[in-house]
Amino acid sequence: MVVGDVTTGTEVLVIGAGPGGYVAAIRAAQRDLDVTLVERDAYGGVCLNRGCIPSKAYITATGVAEDAANAEEMGVYADPVVDLATMHEWKEGVVDRLTGGVEKLCKANGVGLVEGTAKFEDEGTVRVEHGGEGQGAETMTFEHCIVATGSRPIELPGFDFADDPVLDSAAALDLDTVPDRLVVIGAGYIGMELSTVFADLGSDVTVVEMLDGVLPGYEDDVSRVVRKRAESKGVDFQFGEGASGWRDAADGGIVVTTETEDGEESTYGADRVLVAVGREPITDTLDAAKVGLETTDGGFFETDERCETAVDDIYAVGDVAGEPMLAHTASAEGIVAAEAIAGEPAAFDTRAVPAAVFTDPEIATVGLTEAEAKAEGFDPVVGEMPFNASGRALTLGETEGFVRIVASEDGFVLGAQIVGPEASELIAEPTLAIEMGATLSDVVATVHTHPTLAEAVMEAAENALGQAIHTLNR
């Protein structure tokens, strides 16, 4: 059936149904606004379909196998066999359940759903091109618009994602067989998460990174723990090298070539190559110039604290609005944008936005590091609790890493860095402390359940005050 060229109208138009867009749409509908959500691909966006959820599913599954295979110290002996096809089917089931849930939640809250690609015509109109031959297009007018079109993997010169051996993160998570040899380009969070997953699956993994370490942006003693664990899994790191191209090899695989700044070349045999050098915003599908909406050199839309762009009544949330490019940031910005449109006094503050890397072990951070606190004029106090002194960590067999908490000279929590088991969960407490303006004494006075990993946060705060019980005071 051919859809006719019709014109419809809505109060709030949301473009993109990822974690920023669908959350914004639901919140705007909860504020009694007429909302239409346009999505060209799949509800839930990259996060639910090809990123956060699929990767964490694989991380969990491969972690179960690795734990079972390395539990002799606990008296458990096992030789697990991983069936990637079955794992993939399970992962797809998780994704389908969540994406289906997003669609149901939108409909239950009265959000109108439209499939297609939205392009601006003028400041109050978009043209929605429906996917599929003969599906036509429609014109839609709006009073307010929230752009949440997300991001895509950056493609390196010489590594075309259309070529079969070259993978982006989504394609890597869709493989039905494990490559014997995998070269990973980039040692950022995506590269590190997936390199350890495939190492656990049995791949011979080589990571090529132009910089001199893994996870740039994290403190050395944090990233060092993750690198050491990855190396123990057999991951080989080649630093100071940039990937320059690939070619077919006589053995049926490929050869990946790299080059140093001095022009020295190296080659690495592989069956597949995963390009994981970052992501770029998707802003080129919108015809944004038609409404005078300009992007930065990085392709982002600049926004104010209400997530509004330089064009009145057009908002941008999530990856298109710049760093931090995190799913939970997108959701928080989506809520701010929706409430701002509804006339509420909403504003977004990045001061207490946590970040997590789901490597083995996990990393999670929030707020300021000690160095950043000093740069901002504080005379910080710092406390640490190593997991090798945590009773619960010992019973889990996960003793690498620590909790570090940073506070101002008068005790207000400024930041935290955690590397170790369940770091992504533990970071919630210091995040709340920063958000509510809590002090070290507030954290210490909060009774924590024993034995738990969360006690390490309390102990780090005790350490900062010079009164730790279960670790030596600094």
Question: Can you give a write-up of this model?
Answer:
- The chain is 31% helix and 25% strand.
- The mean pLDDT is 95.
- α3 packs across α6 (189-201).
- The protein is α/β, with parallel strands linked by helices and 474 residues long.
- It is globular and about 70 Å long.
- The strands form 5 sheets. Strands 1, 2, 3, 4, 5, 6 and 17 form a 7-stranded mixed β-sheet that branches. The protein has a 5-stranded parallel β-sheet with strand order 8-15-9-10-11.
- The longest helix has 25 residues, at 84-108.
- The protein contains 14 helices and 22 strands.
- The N and C termini lie far apart (72 Å).
- α6 links the parallel β9 and β10.
Topology:
Blueprint: E1 7-15, H1 21-30, E2 35-39, H2 45-50, H3 52-69, H4 84-108, E3 112-115, E4 117-122, E5 125-129, E6 137-147, E7 151-153, E8 166-167, H5 169-172, E9 181-185, H6 189-201, E10 204-209, H7 220-232, E11 236-239, E12 242-248, E13 254-259, E14 265-270, E15 272-275, E16 279-281, E17 314-316, H8 327-341, E18 355-357, E19 362-367, H9 370-375, E20 381-386, H10 391-396, E21 402-407, E22 413-420, H11 423-426, H12 428-436, H13 440-445, H14 455-464
Parallel strand pairs: 1-2, 1-6, 2-3, 6-17, 8-15, 9-10, 9-15, 10-11
Antiparallel strand pairs: 4-5, 5-6, 7-16, 12-13, 13-14, 18-19, 19-22, 20-21, 21-22
Helix pairs in contact: 1-8, 3-4, 3-6
